[in-house]
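Sample intake sheet
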Amino acid sequence: MKLRSLAIRSIASIAAAFTPSVAWAHAGTGAAADFSHGFLHPLTGADHMLAMIAVGILAYQIGGRALWFVPLSFLLFMVVGGTLGATGVDMPHVELGIALSVVILGAAIAFGIAAPLLVTMAIVGIFAVFHGHAHGAEMPASTSALGYALGFVSSTALLHLAGIGIGMLIGRIGARHEPALVRAAGGLMTVAGLGVLGGVL
């Protein structure tokens, strides 16, 4: 329980550190606008949101050190992908990689796949590069890269927290039914991911 609490606080601290716009009343111009563009980008696509929430649920499901290492791996590699996208480095099959991230992460949750922590971090990191590349490539030309990056890192961290929170909420419903409920959530994500792949979502 202490590990989970520390992990949640760590991710929350990252989100808080990267969320200066909370103190800005107006987000029309300058740094506030740059941050806002980045912050909103992961929230404008169901594929991004589902994958990032899935990372949080998966981290909760694995537990222990994975609770903070898995989300942090996603955040770090997402920045790498964002840098590639923002600097114009071409990366093939980005949309396919994003859609597959929802399918595979959802399936991992649904089937309770217990891969070694480093393997899980690597898989999550690979998917994060695709998500980050999409964020960076779609950055408005007049936007500050730093402010934009801080924005999408912040919203992603919050989505990870939401996933962890969903896992905890399910846990509070009842330990007896928790595994089945978590796996059901993963199954729904897998179906949604297939919908993204098929162009339905």
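Comment: The CA atoms of residues 100 and 193 lie 7 Å apart. The chain has one domain: 2-8+35-197.
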